[in-house]
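Intended use. Records like the one below are meant for learning the mapping from a protein sequence to its folded structure. Do not use them to infer anything beyond what is encoded.
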Amino acid sequence: MSSEKKAYGEDDLSAAMNMIDAVYGTVFDQDRFDELVDLSARQILNPSERDRFATLKEMLEGHLERAEEMLVHVPAPDINGVDALPEFLLGRQGDVLQTNNKARALFSITDETAIDDLNLSIDERTALSNYLKGSSDIPPVLRLSRNDTSKPYLMFVERARAQTKAELRIFGTDALWGERASNASKTLFGLSPSEAEVLGHILSGLSPAEVATERGRSLETVRQQIRSMIAKTQTHGIQGLARLGSAIAQSAERQRSIVSAPGLNATRDVVALPNGRTTDYIWQGAPDGTPVVFLHGCLCGNRFPTGATEYFHQNGIRLIAPARPYHGQTSGHDAMITSPERYAPDLLYLLDHLGVDQFHLLAFDTGAIVSLSIADALRDRITGVTCVGAQPPMRSWRDFASAPPQQSLFAVMPTISLPLLRFLAKAGDRRLKRDGADGFAKNVFLGADADLRACDDAELLNLFWEGHLFHVENGSDGFINDCRLVAAPWANRLKLPDVPIHFVHGELDVSVAPDRIFNFAKEVDAEVTIIPAAGHSAIFSHWPKVFEVVSRSLPNDH
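Structure written out for the chain above:
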């Protein structure tokens, strides 16, 4: 398999996707992989087994690195307009590794461009170099001149994830500063009208000196306004202020474009967090109803069927479903991979923003890990916790012996090879997007008969498919990190408040065997309800049974 770069056009997409199938299948060398798992499961008890394990792992990961280089240069199925915004990746030596079409067109950046060739100021180049080398923790904001207008374009920088050799991701945004964003900045952070206007100019790519000229003010006046905004928003310098402004603008844009979108049967929005990150959420049901906060898993999304929405309206329930970090439009949060309890401040900020005080916490799959981990921090605000299809602590790989092969592989992969996990997640996403909604059931639930039957319902199948697109809106990191979370020792730090905890589980759930739920329920003093004939997706396919349980923890007057 050659690692040479090759450009594939649209006409080659079908052939390229067949190549991905071949690469995916080759990495899944079942005999060697079974041996690798078997050796790992025996905990490598003697030197000869350790040597064999190391040899197999090196072989698979070496093969994988070549395959991933090939994967990078195959065009992904165009689901959401991949090249709508400029983006490129930087390697460890400051060389551009991958550039999308928009970045090439706007800035004439190619895969041969070096960091010194970028049209940056000395300060920007120094800040970028320091961040690249790890001598600074503050990601810079860059101003690149557009080829078409010669005007500056703001580009943001973050650590690259799920890439073989890339170190940084540099990307633009099309969120424009307008009245909604200006009003949000004044409401959330107390900016004055003049400060909000200055922030808008900064986001358009202007320097402080250019803002002063544009507004007919002195440079010192503009600098004082910037210092005031930094203090009010508690951000790190003008770089952090620009990032927060971008988050506010994106939130306002998404609110304008997707609130009550046709067919969504939910209202969606994005809220800027004080630290410059964003949190995406939807809500369904009665606007003034009793709040139920739903934390989703790593499949099937965060939206309930139309029938459930009607039930929420009729029974006075407002279901609020935030997108956890790395899912939807919610920013990443690296600390959560091993410390899920650190999600609590994000959720509390969102609920304060929405004016929610008391609420019931409902969770599915990996969302149950997060819910149980944050429950103690929410002790004064939650009326109870209901976990459906929960992922209990991983004690042994045998926990997943009954799960569908693709699900069991992803569950144990974090303890064997993170590069292999990353590759399989990305290649698997491409296969799912290629096969579309029609192929979703067999790709995800093959071997899980109850879940396959649930997919016979056209609305549920479409809901699950749209849910997958939600999980990978910004790449596969959400799924990858959820797999890592399942394998992490999160239960070692578990501290639960004195509120009712209830596990609801499908009788025919093969992803998480019911006996694991009963055993874990004993550990945390929780009640268990089994739903007959239901699978892992019971929270969506058998939602009436789930909300029978939830209703017991809601106020009587809800």
